[in-house]
Design brief:
alpha+beta
Length: 260
């Protein structure tokens, strides 16, 4: 969206980046991290939809409807269980409309499962981190749309998918932006592999040094604020049980790397 800070983003900016969904569809069709996050049962990757050639039509139809629905959120409805945003979003209706647009039969029921929210349980299965055997998760359109961008911000660390959180938001933003730039460059070169594969724990160290170098070169007065912490959220969305943990990279380690 060509904004300098996350706080400057508006819903209009997000719609401008998404447009008709074609760009996000191409990216998610290419990078391997997408299926590692959502599996192969979603509209973009499900075999039956791909075989019929309807998968991209259905996926873009869902993306457009998510963007439209997020405009109506924030005022009435039950709180989204991921963001707290009041919402009346109906995933079943959204998917049914997109499937019919792609010439496919709509399912009788469609609930939020781990093909839409990583680590989410599903009706009849409490194996994952967010159990939903008694009822489906109630999730906002805004959260579901944001999650579709998640694979571009991930890398592999100790065999798990990893993303960032930090007490210093510009650091988190720069680290995530470096991942997005990496994937766009790799896709242009015909490489679809997830970043960090086969590198072990060294991948996180190398990324930190790269981003710190960019920050210091672009801003000579750049400094880490006191008590800056960085957290790696590690997870796997495959298998029968939840696999997730948080690794802290504390202030003293970040400051040492900054000086290096």
């Amino acid at each position: 969206a060509e904004k300098s800070d996350i706080s400057e983003l508006s819903l209009t900016d997000i719609e401008g980046v998404l447009r008709d969904g074609s760009g996000l569809c191409r990216t998610n069709s290419g990078i391997k991290s997408f299926t590692m996050v959502f599996g192969t049962n979603g509209p973009l990757t499900q075999y039956a939809y791909r075989k019929s050639g309807a998968n991209e039509i259905i996926y873009k139809g869902v993306l457009r409807r998510l963007a439209q629905a997020m405009r109506d959120e924030g005022r009435v409805g039950e709180p989204c269980e991921l963001t707290g945003i009041p919402t009346k979003f109906d995933l079943h209706r959204t998917c049914a409309e997109a499937l019919r647009e792609g010439g496919q039969r709509a399912p009788e029921h469609k609930w939020v499962g781990r093909d839409w929210v990583p680590l989410a349980g599903s009706l009849g299965n409490d194996a994952q981190a967010l159990p939903a055997a008694s009822r489906p998760l109630h999730v906002s359109a805004r959260a579901l749309l944001a999650l579709q961008f998640l694979p571009q911000g991930l890398f592999l660390f100790q065999g798990r998918l990893a993303c960032y959180q930090s007490t210093y938001s510009p650091l988190m933003q720069e680290l995530t932006a470096s991942q997005v730039d990496y994937y766009h460059n790799q896709l242009a070169a015909g490489n679809y592999e997830i970043r960090g594969k086969g590198e072990g724990s060294a991948s996180a160290l190398r990324l930190l040094l790269e981003v710190f170098g960019k920050l210091r070169n672009s801003r000579r007065d750049a400094q880490l604020p006191p008590h800056t912490d960085l957290y790696l959220w590690l997870f796997s969305n495959s298998g029968a049980s939840a696999d997730c943990r948080i690794v802290e990279i504390p202030d003293r380690v970040l400051r040492f790397l900054w000086e290096c």
